[in-house]
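hi! just following up on the protien thing from before. the input was this:
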Amino acid sequence: MRCFLAVFLVCTLIACVGCSDSDENNMTARDYYKQAYQFIDAGHPKEAIDLLTLAIGKDPNYYEAYYNRGVVFYLLKEYRRAADDFSKAISIDPKNSSAYASRGEVYEIMKENEKAYSDYRTAARMGNSEAQKYLTSKGLSW
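and the predicted 3d structure came back as:
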């Protein structure tokens, strides 16, 4: 069953990416995002990157597409690319604490601790309970 699902998902991606110009023009950023999320949900994050990129191409201010592409890059251990996408998500929606907390985690992995703690503090001040717990566990104020 899992093999069938993987084949189905790959075929869906190929069909989507290989759309004619007229079909592609009918696809919205949300359509690409939904398809990408299906790949992520099915455990195929690499296949989702192109679809999220297409969503961003259709709507350059699509916070969720940048944020989730950042998550995919994080899962693939492409931390610089993840940080860049979280940064773009923050520039689009600076009041969303999740992107700060996620970027903080990436910075910490990359050993950029000052940047990490700054992002965690920002997220904590915005009410992000995970960032608050993290900082408290490290004995750091927020």
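The chain is about 80% helix and 0% strand.
Residues 39 and 48 are 6 Å apart (CA to CA).
cheers
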